[in-house]
Write a structure and sequence with these properties.
The complex is a heterodimer of chains A (about 425) and B (about 90). Chain A is mainly alpha-helical. Chain A has 15 helices and no strands. Chain A has one domain: Cytochrome C Oxidase, Chain A. Chain A starts with 14 loop residues before the first helix and ends in a 5-residue tail after the last helix. In chain B, strand 1, helix 1 and strand 2 form a beta-alpha-beta unit. Chain B has a 4-stranded mixed β-sheet, with helices on both faces. Chain B is globular. Chain B has one domain: TusA-like domain (Translation Initiation Factor IF3). The chains are: A mainly alpha (about 425), B alpha+beta (about 90). At the A-B interface, helix 2, helix 6 and helix 11 of A face helix 1, helix 2 and strand 3 of B.
Chain lengths: ~425, ~90
């Protein structure tokens, strides 16, 4: 039962969440630009300093910035969770995370210690503040046993472990006495990609795939057990317990999620063109492909598995799966927030009888189709570049830069639409 | 929508967000004294509550009988509608 109402005061102004969401594609543009500047040498091995820089522009700047923004802003909507002083906390986290991510990427690329030291301080503060605030809010809701809340909690714990290891590694790069602890790199990457990105996407999918794509719900048994299984498997692998079977369980779990999502989407109730659906499908196909290469490299280790497989898996997982899901979600979240804030900002007398823009009108479908095609071509070219850097690196950089600049422009057009409607409403006389 | 009784029934379970909220706000514009809106939904509509509060409506939400979730909405100060909701919802 639920009497009463949530306070409007708790809802931050539109610019607070949108700041996070417009920053993500800007980091994508930077990453693609770095690929163009560095050229094929960037992808010559997974250990090049340039690739470490580009990877963190994407994992921190594109994926984590959006995921932080989404969790801070959407927890009240998805889970009914209230975060106290959300405006202030969002501003502080953003103000630390964004320059910290830039400093880390630049420091890794160039080897400048001062950049890395600055990054460690800023990112440590951002991650600690975010983890404490969100975990506190989630723990209040986790008792309800909602699978998506359990998954979000697991993801934030996974993020905390990833961030802790990442900070130790970055401090090593910055010249700390203990040096670069290479053994931690794989663990950091695995936790970040599976326990943070993978588990959060799964938790969000339980809610948003049925909600926005009008599919049947995920099977109860799957939504209850998949995330705990993935977290146990990735933790076992992390401490060196049954590493190969644990990795195979992780790969199978992610593949089952991707396959179920594709099956559910094929059974959706409303069959109309939708860019979010297209992005989710691309993401699930890339996740399956990444999984297949990962499993093959685990079962058949050798020269190929050591040299090309990590790059191909990284490209398919981070760009093909991660940035595709995020792009698809941004195309729903930003117009939805614009719509919601228009409802809240405009007095009722101004809303009544007026045709406020619908979701489809806030970012027209004609603008998103071309952007999606550029993204697909960019992902394909980058996968090609993982195998043959000389052939495809520049094409991948150019296509992805076009795609992510297009994403930024499309999201910006939603903000402009909001401002126009508000300005038009302010010009109306009272009682209009 | 059935407007014969004090209940206006609106099933938005087959709609994609934010259409359920759009339809609900539109239906509330036509609510007469003594009437309440019974909204059938696929999930709890957290963003709707703040809009209802601002527009002068009260609500009561619960797990639905004919849908995963349902919300009763009536105008603040409309005692007849509130009594009717109480009878239907058993509160």
């Amino acid at each position: 039962m639920n009497y009463g109402a949530l306070s409007l005061e708790q809802a931050p102004a539109l610019d607070v969440p949108v700041r996070f969401f417009l920053t993500a594609p800007a980091f994508g543009v930077l990453a693609a630009g770095a690929l163009l500047v560095g050229g094929p040498a960037v992808l010559s091995s997974r250990w090049t300093p340039q690739l470490l820089g580009v990877t963190h522009l994407l994992t921190l700047g594109f994926l984590t910035v959006t995921m932080f923004g989404a969790l801070l802003q959407l927890l009240p909507v998805l889970a009914g969770v209230t975060i106290v002083r959300i405006r202030l906390i969002s501003a502080v986290v953003y103000g630390l995370l964004v320059p910290g991510s830039l400093a880390l990427a630049l420091g890794l690329w160039s080897g400048w210690n001062a950049c890395l030291e600055l990054a460690v301080v800023m990112l440590a503060a951002a991650c600690l503040l975010f983890a404490v605030v969100v975990l506190r809010a989630l723990i209040g809701a986790v008792g309800r046993g909602q699978p998506s809340v359990v998954a979000m909690t697991g993801a934030v714990l996974g993020f905390s472990a990833t961030a802790g290891l990442g900070l130790v590694l970055a401090a090593g790069h910055a010249g700390a006495r203990f040096g670069i602890l290479r053994d931690l790199t794989d663990l950091h990457a695995r936790l970040g990609l599976v326990a943070w990105v993978g588990v959060l996407v799964i938790g969000v999918a339980y809610q948003v795939v049925p909600m926005f794509q009008l599919t049947p719900a995920y099977p109860h048994r799957l939504s209850t057990w998949l995330v705990p299984l993935l977290l146990v498997a990735v933790s076992a692998s992390a401490v060196g317990l049954l590493s190969v079977p644990a990795d195979l369980v992780t790969a199978t779990g992610l593949a089952v999620f991707a396959a179920f999502t594709l099956v559910l989407q094929s059974r959706r109730r409303r069959r109309r063109a939708d860019v979010t659906l297209a992005y989710w499908r691309l993401a699930m196909i890339c996740l399956l492909a990444a999984d297949g290469i990962w499993a093959a490299a685990t079962l058949l280790p050798g020269g190929w598995a050591a040299r090309v497989a990590p790059l191909a898996v990284g490209v398919l997982y981070i760009v093909g799966f991660g940035t595709s899901v995020i792009s698809g979600m941004l195309y729903k979240i930003v117009p939805f927030l614009v719509w919601l804030h228009l409802q809240r900002r405009l007095p009722r007398r101004h809303r009544a009888g007026r045709n406020l823009p619908t979701m489809a009108e806030i970012i027209p479908v004609t603008r998103t189709g071309l952007q999606f095609r550029a993204h697909c071509a960019g992902v394909l070219a980058l996968v090609g570049a993982a195998f043959h850097p000389q052939w495809a690196t520049y094409a991948a950089g150019g296509l992805l830069m076009t795609a992510w600049a297009g994403l930024w422009l499309n999201l910006w057009s939603a903000v402009r639409c909001y401002r126009h409607v508000i300005a038009d409403s302010a010009a109306l006389p009272d009682g209009a | 929508m059935n407007e014969q009784s004090s209940e206006c029934l609106l099933d938005v379970t087959a709609l994609e967000p934010p259409e359920p909220l759009e339809r609900a706000l539109e239906a509330l514009e036509h609510l007469r004294p003594g009437q309440y809106l019974r909204l059938l939904l696929r999930r709890e509509p957290f963003p709707l509550y703040a809009l209802l509060d601002e527009d002068g409506f009260l609500h009561l939400g619960r797990r639905g009988e004919d849908s995963p979730y349902e919300v009763f909405v009536w105008r603040r100060g409309d005692a007849a509608a509130e009594t009717a909701v109480g009878e239907v919802a058993g509160e």
